[in-house]
Amino acid sequence: MALISKIRKHSWILIVMIALGLGGFIMMDVTNNQGLLGSNRTIMAEVADEKIDINEFNVLEQTVYGNSSGDPYARRSALWNFYLEKILLEQEAEAMGIGVGKEELLDLQFGNNLSPVMTRNFMDPNTGQVDRNRIQQFKTAIENNTLEASLRPFWAYQEKDIIRERLKDKMVNMISKGLYVPTWMAEMVANEQNSKVDFQYARIPFDAVPNEDVTLTDADYQAFLDENSKEFAQKEPVRKLEYIVFDVKPSLADSQSIYKKMEELTAAFAATEDDSLFVQNNFGTIDGVYYKKSEVSSVIADSIFKVLEGAVIGPYYDTDAYRAVKLLEKKIMPDSVRSRHILLRADMANQAEVQQAYFTLDSLRLLVNNNIQTFDSLAAQYGQDGTAAKGGDLGFAAQNRMVKPFNDLIFYQAEPDSLYIIGTEFGVHLVEVTDRKYINNEVGVRLGFISQEIIPSEETERNIEQEAIVLAAENNTLEELRAAVAARPELTFQSSEPLTRNAYSITGLGAGQSVRNMVRWAYGDDPSYDAPEVGDICKDVFSVQDPDKFYASQFVIAGLKSIQKAGPPTLAAFKEDIEPAVMNRKKAQMIIEQLGKPASLAEAASKYKVAVDTARNVAFATSSIPNMGSEPKVVATAFKLDINNISAPIEGNSGVFVIVPVAKPAVSSAPNLQLTRRTMGATLKSQVQGRLISFLEEQEDVKDQRSKFYVGGEGRGGGGPPSEHFICALLIRRRDEHPDGFDLRIAYRIQDEFEAVE
User: Which of 194, 369, 450, 749 is most buried when burial is the number of CB atoms within 10 A of its CB?
Assistant: First the structure.
């Protein structure tokens, strides 16, 4: 009771303490941008004072790409560019007083002046033409307010994209109208294009001087970097990684085990009477196609045409797998087939349209089969392509001239005087084969395949991973790691290109979550690690998932090689990149010093035992020598020198040159200045189009925080939650590797492991 009395007596102190505590929490939240007051924790970027919310961004990504299997980081990069351009262009357009009106927008969507966005989205891949029928269907649905709910967000995005594209086009046109090519400039360019020179030359390649004869100093590197600073200057910070790759390859024991299993499957394949079920259960393939000898793998081409139907060949090795093939049927193949069809257009992604087309064609088939109507009359009445007027006749077609489903039907499946319904990307067809031509009487074979890819076992994968883990654990820095692998020629260091904070791909490793995790580690964006310093290596090993394989194909030990801030380049960050160029420059100086002032081309050529060659009709404007590539210094010297005068040694791009001009033909006709002006104007316009957005971006304060949100899978070094295909493949592999001990408990345990990851 005494304690309660004291609390009551000094209750004001308690209230103050509680208030201070709450205030502290609120201030901490505010400072971390995660507060209760005006929370910004979902703002991934800010462009021209306009905030981009990650939730809105994710919704739009789902709207535009849905469940696309493409690279998610490439999709996000494209979507980021859309946001960036849209905001920058709208702001600039408002300042300039330009826009896109309602009538103009309708014309860009449905009229005769279709936006490039509409042309791209509604292009028929088979004809290369815009599908006006689909556009009209959308227009009708929008006007009648019957557009499917699932399509409305996409259409709204498409409208914004059309406006963005149109605003950009207007700005480019306005800027281009302000560009002018004066007469003197057109005359100069025309003369440069028409002026030609012939010259003889001796080229001493850089590799005429061995690398070991060259000593490079930091001063050499720095001088080159200073002269080319604009080329290597960075608009934003970049970092480079240095890494070792452990390739996961099947061992000899893995290959032998897979071959033994394939032998058992091959014997069972030969014995089975239900080929389709057997192939299906063993993840093989049976195609309705009858292959000619030229279309069969060279491994089996000779033998498969000599065996009887039902015979099995294998196991044999072909493209990283052991395979077996069963001859199901042989028959003489027609050289061409004549057919006719009734086509009903349908969007194959729209199940209701497809189903209605099938119902209609099935009714037409009944009319023909019951002799109520003729095929050609129904084709003329219902057909929706150019063959309708000809009774649907497609004429004779050679093999593979039609789209695959149609081709396979008329060549391999259809019987004369029978009607078939089939769907293709053009729509739904009612098809009849009317004639066949047999000229070469070539045999075709229908085959069934089973195969086992030669892949590493789980044990091999674990052993390689463990080898990488041990090596990473035993070394703390890149320097220590280099020393540790010096005596291991199978392991080599590789360097990444300069990586921005939002990078998700590295040349040689590809794109994906593992690479993204490496970049996040390098920038200190992964809370699982302390921010690294130059020379540090990540103590965890990164596993790289091959997009076409269902196992980790590589394990990577990565270290932070260099850090380059935005602005002028530093020698530490780019020394390795410029070394070949600095080496060639040094070699050029040595060659030029040794050549001195040669009296003739023969003298220069003899010192390095090279040939004298002739370049003819070299234009000043191209600055290129036939079979040599771009050599602007050499070409400029050739035009500057008088005929038959020998040049001093010239440092070119591919070596040191000594040249002698031998002819400068007169320009045959007056230049076409109008054509030159138009060409130069078009070039300037394309440059405006390419640089407009980057220029607008430079004028604005773009706060890009994408790296905090583009996280993906959170497992250290992992590739995010595995796909269903990955889980299935792993279950199959575990079943194959443990045939006696595999049961549903293993499957449930694997499922639990993956659910824990997710």
Answer: 450
| pLDDT score of 25 more than 80 | no
pLDDT (tens digit per residue) in 257-281 = 999 999 999 999 999 999 999 999 9
Q: Is the pLDDT of residue 287 over 80?
A: no
Q: Which of 49, 53, 115 is nearest to 87 (CA)?
A: 49
Q: By the 8 A CB rule, do 368 and 375 touch?
A: yes
φ, ψ for residue 717, nearest 5 deg = 75, 0
Domains parsed from the chain with CATH numbers: 2-39 (no CATH), 44-177 (no CATH), 196-226+596-663 (3.10.50), 252-332 (no CATH), 336-437 (3.10.50.40), 726-758 (no CATH)
Distance CA 301, CA 317 (A): 14
**Looking at the predicted structure, is the pLDDT value of residue 489 above 70?**
yes
Contact 299, 318 (CB under 8 A): yes
Contact call for residues 338 and 390 (beta carbons, < 8 A): no
Alpha-carbon distance of 276 to 405, in angstroms, equals 20
Measure Cα distances from 756 to 711, 714, 721 in Å: 18, 12, 9
| Mean pLDDT, rounded, for 228-233 | 90
pLDDT at 750 over 50: no
Task: Give SS3 for 203.
Answer: strand
In whole angstroms, what is the distance from residue 30 CA to residue 132 CA? 53
| Torsion-angle region of 755 (φ positive above 0: left; ψ -120 to 50: alpha; else: beta) | alpha
Residue 599 is predicted with a pLDDT of 92
Query: Residue 117 above 90 pLDDT?
Result: yes
Is the whole-model pTM more than 0.90?
A: no
Sign of CA dihedral 264, 270, 274, 278: positive
Of 25, 160, 191, nearest to 676 by C-alpha is 191
What does the alpha-carbon distance between residue 710 and residue 408 come to, in Å, rounded to a whole number?
A: 45
Whether the Cβ atoms of residue 73 and residue 505 lie closer than 8 Å to each other: yes
Helix ranges, 493-610 (H): 513-522, 571-595, 601-608
Using one digit for the tens of pLDDT, what is the confidence trace for 301-353? 989 999 999 999 999 999 899 999 999 999 888 989 999 999 999 888 777 78
Cβ contacts of 215 within 8 Å, gap of 6 or more? none
| Mean of pLDDT values over 551-572 | 92
CA distance 661 to 181: 32
- Rounded distance, CA 30 to CA 38, Å? 8
Instruction: Give the position of tokens 């929490």.
Output: 25
Take residue 135 and report the two structure tokens written for it: 């556009």
Q: How far apart are CA 529 and CA 540, in angstroms?
A: 10
pLDDT tens-place string over residues 27-54: 444 344 443 333 578 999 999 889 999 9
**H/E/C letters for each residue in 306-328?**
CCCCCCEEEEEECCCEEEEEEEE
- Asked if 246 and 487 touch (Cβ cutoff 8 Å), the reply is no
- Taking alpha carbons only, the member of 77, 57, 58, 34 closest to residue 501 is 77
Higher pLDDT, 399 or 12: 399
Cis peptide before 527 (omega within 30 of 0): no
Residues composing the chain: 758
User: Which has the closest alpha carbon to 210: 608, 554, 668, 478?
Assistant: 608
Which pLDDT does position 711 carry in this prediction? Answer: 62
Residue 539 has pLDDT above 70, yes or no: yes
In a 3-state reduction of DSSP, which class is residue 394? Answer: strand
- C-alpha closest to that of 239 among 520, 512, 527: 520
| Tokens standing for residue 410 | 């008329």
